[in-house]
Amino acid sequence: MHNELPRAIISFPLPGLELTSITGQNNLQVWVNPTAKMLSRESLLAHARGVAGVLVTPGDGPIDDAWMDAVGDSLRVISCFSVGVDYVDLAAARRRNILIGNTPGATTQPTADITWLLILGAARKIRHATETLATGWAGIKPDDDYGLRLVDKTLLVIGAGQIGTAVAQRAVGWGMKTLYVARSPKAAIEAEPIGARRVTLEEGLAQADIVSLHVPLTAETTHMIGKPQFDLMKRSALLINTSRGAVVDESALIAALEENRIYAAGLDVYEREPAIPPRLMRLKNAFLLPHIGTATHDDRSEMTRMATENLLAGIQGRKLPFAVTGE
């Protein structure tokens, strides 16, 4: 038993995963979920007991005290196939000296692209346009109404990290004025050509034509956008969310859209995904995507590389190349 190789699990068959390059030269046994389906908590833990490292996705959460207890004292590293780590109990991991890694950077550009797809889709009533084609288009008419002009509008970025800044960079081409909300000044978004100005949440909501959310999900940010915030927004404003669904009070958003208190919403994330409320699905002023922000072949392959590097480093007792908790 003393010569037994350390073990790890990978909870999903990841894009670009080259298993032999992980196992052969690293003296490691790795079990990979052989199906393209998320495993139940019980099934995943049955494979995870006694392993040194786990590579997990947001769909495997919650990775909590009970989950870590079930794996046992052998667990050294939790490698997250995501930039957000809200599904992992970081405090519980720290108490056990378990390292946590994620995949920052690889998510920045594709998520910024999807943010702009949502902005355009919500502003230009693309859902209505595609439904018109599907049900029978009679040609253009003088009274066609396909949304709002975007040039020269005001963008509010809430959370001015890498993704929020990348979204603001794209706004330069539209001649937009950018405001941002953050706990501290952010040089990258304030620098030209963006030239963003830091404001309070309340100031920004009152001025913005587009409100774009880019914050992690924490106790502080849960439901940070709800009825009081919708009441501050322009009736012509768009709400865009590519962060985490629970940053928005989904019930309050549905009410705001139904009552036309805001113009439209563009969403790639949902409060209880994959469940989406039928009322939200029916709304013509809701432009919805199935959480595809990072889902390009190139970017998911890069995430695989980062996550497997974190997994190996943690098992081998090295500093994680992409650490969450600063190890």
Describe this structure in words.
Helix content is 34%, strand content 14%. The chain has helices at residues 19-23, 41-48, 65-71, 90-95, 108-123, 126-135, 162-171, 187-190, 201-207, 227-232, 250-258, 278-282, 297-315; strands at residues 7-10, 29-32, 53-56, 77-80, 99-101, 154-158, 177-181, 197-198, 210-213, 238-241, 264-267, 286-288. The chain folds into two domains: 7-106 and 297-315, 3-Layer(aba) Sandwich (Rossmann fold); 108-288, 3-Layer(aba) Sandwich (Rossmann fold). With 327 residues, it is α/β, with parallel strands linked by helices. It has 13 helices and twelve strands. The protein has a seven-stranded parallel sheet with strand order 8-7-6-9-10-11-12, with helices on both faces. A five-stranded parallel sheet has the order 2-1-3-4-5. The mean pLDDT is 94. The protein is elongated. The protein starts with 6 loop residues before the first strand and ends in a 12-residue tail after the last helix.
